[in-house]
Amino acid sequence: MGRKWNNIKEKKASKDANTSRIYAKFGREIYVAAKQGEPDPESNRALKVVLERAKTYSVPKHIIDRAIEKAKGGEDENFDELRYEGFGPNGSMIIVDALTNNVNRTAAEVRSAFTKNSGNMGVSGSVAYMFDATAVIGIEGKSADEVLEILLDADVEARDILEEEEVVIIYAEPEMFHAVQEALKNKGITEFTVAELTMLPQTEVELDSESLQSFLKLIDVLEDLEDVKQVYHNVSE
Predict the structure, then answer these.
(1) pLDDT tens-digit series, residues 9-36
(2) pLDDT 10s digits, 73-101
(3) Domains of the chain, each with CATH number or no CATH
(4) Who has the most CB within 10 Å: 41, 52, 85, 88?
(5) Do 37 and 50 touch, CB atoms closer than 8 A?
(6) TACO1/YebC-like second and third domain: from which residue to which, for each copy (predicted)?
(7) Ordered DSSP codes for the chain
(8) What angle, 0 to 180 degrees and rounded to 10, lies between the N-to-C axes of helices 177-185 and 45-56?
(9) Which range is least confidently modeled, 69-73, 142-146, 189-193?
(10) Where does residue 228 rank: exposed (0-12), middle (13-18), buried (19+ CB within 10 A)?
(11) Residue 196's Cα: distance from chain center in Å?
(12) HSE on the CB side for 116, CA within 13 Å?
């Protein structure tokens, strides 16, 4: 699963060039999650997940607080969560998750991004079956064996635990996301290098240099769309 972690790591490393866009998207995610239940992460699981992710991207507190306060207020902005599936160059597979207040606009923008950048949209289910919903949590300062012992003591199951470049990466079922974090926090581990609910490809493909450049341009265009929340793919970069 090392390459899968690399894809997440590369996405996080690129955030510095897109800070304002990423913060704006997190503000929207936090607002929507807070509106779905109580604006308190201790009683709102969806909000807690988003806040854990936001922390790993160093989203400023004032942006988080402003989104939660907006959710508490009388303003009511409606958003739909959508998933698009499609193909990039040479049959590469892409999943696009969006959060939008204008479904028609978002559908048109995503379709245009695919068609203008060597890709094409697929029907619902044409790609997602090749991906697994996965909780990915990374920490520093412990070995894989130490993390395994912590999880075993807490009776928390993980799919896999790998140690890469001084970071221990835990892969688990999505419903174990909070249980893994709580087990680690109970041992004094409160900082995470990654804390994601993501879609990991079952297999990865490698593209030749020309196809890879086209593919990366398509991913950049999709991720730049205001309504796009997350983009997942099966290309080894």
Answers:
(1) 555 555 555 688 888 999 999 999 998 8
(2) 866 788 999 999 999 999 899 999 999 99
(3) 131-201 (3.30.70.980)
(4) 88
(5) no
(6) 80-235
(7) -HHHHHHHHHHHHGGGGGHHHHHHHHHHHHHHHHHTS-S-TTT-HHHHHHHHHHHHTT--HHHHHHHHHHHHSS-----EEEEEEEE-GGG-EEEEEEEES-HHHHHHHHHHHHHTTT-EE--TTTTGGGEEEEEEEEEESS-HHHHHHHHHHTT---SEEEEETTEEEEEE-GGGHHHHHHHHHTTT----SEEEEEEEESS-B---HHHHHHHHHHHHHHHHSTTEEEEEE-B--
(8) 60
(9) 69-73
(10) buried
(11) 5
(12) 11
Q: For residue 227, give both structure tokens.
A: 């309504």
Residue 176 C-alpha from the chain's centroid: 16
For tokens 């044409």, what's the residue?
126
Instruction: Report the C-alpha gap between 231 and 117 in whole angstroms.
Output: 15
Question: CA 87 to CA 134: how far, in whole Å?
Answer: 21
Instruction: Please tell me the distance from the alpha carbon of residue 118 to that of residue 74, in angstroms, as a whole number.
Output: 44
Is 26 within 8 Å of 50 (Cβ atoms)? yes
Cα 218 to Cα 222: distance, rounded to the nearest angstrom: 6
What gap in Å lies between CA 228 and CA 53, rounded to an integer? 16
Contact 62, 26 (CB under 8 A): no
Distance between start and end Cα atoms, the chain: 14
